[in-house]
Amino acid sequence: MAQARDQWTTRTGFILAAVGSAIGLGNIWRYPYVVYDNGGGAFLLPYFFALLTAGIPILLLEYSLGHKYRGSGPLSFRRLSKKWEWLGWWQSLIAFLISGYYMVILGWALSYTYYSFGTQWGSETQTFFLEKYLGAADFGSFTPQLKVLIPVVLLWAFVYYVMRQQAHRGIEKLARILMPLLVIMLVIITIRGVTLPGAAEGLNTLFTPDFTALADPQVWVAAYGQVFFSLSVGFATMITYASYLNKKEDLANSGLVAAFANSGFEFMAAIGIFGALGFLAAQSGVGVDEVVNQGVILAFVIFPQIINELPFLNSFFGVTFFGALVFAGLTSIVSLLEPAISAIRDKTGAARTTVVNWIVGLAALMSVLYATDGGLNYLDTIDHYLNSYGLLIAATLMAVATAWTTRKVGELQSHINQVSDVHIGKWWVICVSVVTPVMLIIMTGLNIRTEWLVPYSGYPMPWLIGMGWGALVAVLIAAVILQSKEWKVNTGQAEQQEKEGA
């Protein structure tokens, strides 16, 4: 007998959880740099074009799969077509692997929240981060770093407590608390960023349009890449979350709200961060382009420099910034774990607490690798391959499965329209069937071509192949094995419920 499925208590709870999943570290430290590096203000045109032709269509596709078939990624794909069940497992396992290193980044942010009191990182912020905090070493070094490991263990204990609860008690409550706080923190950061001396120069650097960039295909590829990375599609998260909605929920409206809320958040983050970068450039007597960076260096090297230069309340703004990273990351990491938890529960019928014990326990063990002195290299490699290849390939195959092989994209469109006030038309079918897979195939091909000529970040090719491609192949093999296992629940339940009008 099938177990009762978790359900969100309200639509607001679902939207907050969905937005919390999408809003993560990449919105804060990746989006501003991508805008700057791809035509400034002119980049907003390809960005919103990509959002409307790929981001929102794929988001709605995931919503429709989870909502119509009432299951996790593997169960929803199995109900779509038995031969595609493995894709749901592959997506869920990729998200699970990401959680292992993502938590370590949150551990860094938690440590820096503490270090913000009295700006304990000193004036040499890069030396402090790489040498004194991470103890960074080359590939092949695996010495644990307690300064990193302790906050990671504390965060895993908190996440374990949250994940043991039913979705509406754990994930939904976490989102209801953290998302408003995160917005408040971002507003504080943005207001402070744009009121600093030199902020105008930073904003000019960010938004001055270079319309010649629109003729560069790489700019359009970057726009599609940013949209996919920031919306958390391709990880089976939104399939799982949508399966917890009641059967009459408005999918189209919920998808539009989540997508535009995510875009608004990262746009606001870009304003605050480039205002602060303009201030740092003015204080250092250099151009803004000399202090612009992204990712780990922006967050843990450049931003501490900015905090050092603030005229007052340095510790307060440090706590606010790094606390915002922690909050954004927590709402994202629960969404990375839930697909695997839900999938195994669907497959085996096991109790949630039992599955959480295994999933969180294994993810926590994975984190130990990234909490070593060589962890930054391992983290960077795995992150690049899972996101640049795993995510894009998974999303491409999802479009192929629904539009090309099973040809059920029309059914999914009808399902969305049946429960939504805003109806989607042929544009959605065209985007899912043609625009999205074509763009994703182009992006993947360009990535492979570029890195065949120049290895990613100059890392040794054997490590890139072993860790990067090795991780993708390992989860693919695991996905095929899991598909071969017998289901302990009724995989046809969703279809039967629809026939009965449940």
UniProtKB/TrEMBL annotation:
Any GO CC annotation of this UniProt entry: membrane
Alphabetical list of CDD domains matching this protein: SLC6sbd_u1 (cd10334)
Primary localisation category: membrane
Transmembrane feature ranges: 12-31, 43-65, 86-110, 146-163, 175-199, 219-244, 256-282, 316-337, 349-369, 389-406, 427-448, 460-482
Species of provenance: Melghirimyces profundicolus
Annotated Pfam families: SNF (PF00209)
Protein's name according to its UniProt entry: NSS family neurotransmitter:Na+ symporter
Listed SUPFAM superfamilies: SNF-like
Its membrane topology: Multi-pass membrane protein
Record keywords, A-Z: Membrane, Transmembrane, Transmembrane helix, Transport
Keyword Transport: yes
Subcellular location: Membrane
